[in-house]
């Protein structure tokens, strides 16, 4: 089906982006990493020394920010023309992002961008509120989970590979705090859509998960 929409949501480290990218490649769809957009706003706030608690200032800044996600294999992320691909993955940004992601007007602005992206053609979009809010009519909604230990380990390995030395314990604590914040916020909290398929990926290999999701799509009426 043309213009197929696949929503992949879940907590941090559940494997969303790895899985979403693989599915996008197999089905020749766009991949949209919505977390990168929230991260770009958090990064810019840190960079400009705007205190995260100043909702109005953050909101104003978000409205004036230009975010571009590259669709080619490199998938670079640009914020006001600046390449922030690596910078938005820092532990500082990870610790700050859920604060600004709770602001309704920041979300409004980014959701508008996300729906614009979806308007270009078929997409696999990952995030926290894709199935519940951004693409409520998606053809398939998947909510990925995994045990907190396994999610922390995956994230820790990624950070190690990019040269960031945090302890596994620190990574797990940061992650749990961020998930808690994402689940508790008033607007579009992290929760599975009522029609989402919940997939626990603990102990599963990436290939197995991708195959399962591709089968779900094939078997859709
Ligand atoms: O997916 P990623 O871990 O990069 O997302 C970073 C943060 O951005 C999340 O912890 C959450 O606070 C926010 N986010 C969100 N809604 C989305 C995607 C991300 O609130 N759709």
TrEMBL record:
GO terms for molecular function: ATP binding; CMP kinase activity; dCMP kinase activity. Belongs to the cytidylate kinase family. Type 1 subfamily. It is found in: Cytoplasm. Its main location: cytoplasm. GO terms for biological process: nucleobase-containing small molecule interconversion; pyrimidine nucleotide metabolic process. InterPro entries: Cytidylate_kin, Cytidylate_kinase_dom, P-loop_NTPase. GO terms for cellular component: cytosol. The keyword Transferase applies. SUPFAM superfamilies: P-loop containing nucleoside triphosphate hydrolases. CDD domains: CMPK (cd02020). ATP binds at residues 10-18. It comes from Desulfitobacterium dehalogenans (strain ATCC 51507 / DSM 9161 / JW/IU-DC1). Keywords: ATP-binding, Cytoplasm, Kinase, Nucleotide-binding, Transferase. This is Cytidylate kinase. It holds the Pfam family Cytidylate_kin.
